[in-house]
């Protein structure tokens, strides 16, 4: 599987990936993003910012890049960057289908900015759209934000389409979302085609505030899936100046930012394969990458464990974050 090339990466930061959710579109829910991006939210301004971040990430050893059809023009920006850097052949590219971006590049558009559709028709359309941009550079294609109620878990026709994609050499996975992430992961582990597991990766939210998917992610890892972690900083809630006091205190002890400590907590999970940075500036990215050097002791881990929230409360709070 092409995605397995990540296992061969030897850079110190190879387990940290870079996600384009925050820079592929003018509006997103990360706290502080209104000040992080350039005053002009034009397509060209965000393309330039994306290039800047991708260059910095690659130079720092990051080798996995995460995009999605619903992240505005993220696939387009990524494809442009890859064409402008023809000598870069060792990055692993992942994208997702299942949401359609509907905000028409308007940061002030009323939510929702994306609409979910896990039908076969949506897959076929979005797969063609992704292929038109990323062609053979696409290594991983995931269903976006599966919940236990998603028809994607039971749709045999869709499973056949995805199995055909896997047979062509593209790794097939899924991302999960919401307070029932664990149930969605376990349901996905049971999906097979011709007796073989369909999904080879799972991407989930896991951070100091939302740890409920941990046991199911361990099961997925034990079953041979690569685990990718998104929202390790809880959409900015674990970054300065919004981080809880305990996290800021531990960051002070480490001499680093709260973001580095928050990501370090995720990196130390034995099942975590790739942990995504969603930085919107190069300063944030560099700070995020310091997570690879953070060593948390037992007392610090205990203090961080006390930050965990009930999943329903966490996801309700996340749903109330404004689109900046």
From TrEMBL:
Q: Which InterPro entries match?
A: AKR2_Oxidoreductase (IPR053135), NAD(P)_OxRdtase_dom_sf (IPR036812), NADP_OxRdtase_dom (IPR023210)
Q: In terms of domain of life, where is this protein from?
A: Bacteria
Gene3D superfamilies from the UniProt entry:
NADP-dependent oxidoreductase domain
- The chain positions of domain NADP-dependent oxidoreductase read 47-308
Pfam annotation, one family: Aldo_ket_red
Which PANTHER family does the record associate with it? Answer: D-THREO-ALDOSE 1-DEHYDROGENASE, NADP-DEPENDENT OXIDOREDUCTASE DOMAIN-CONTAINING PROTEIN
What is the official name of this protein in its record? Aldo/keto reductase
Q: Which organism is it from?
A: Streptomyces longisporoflavus
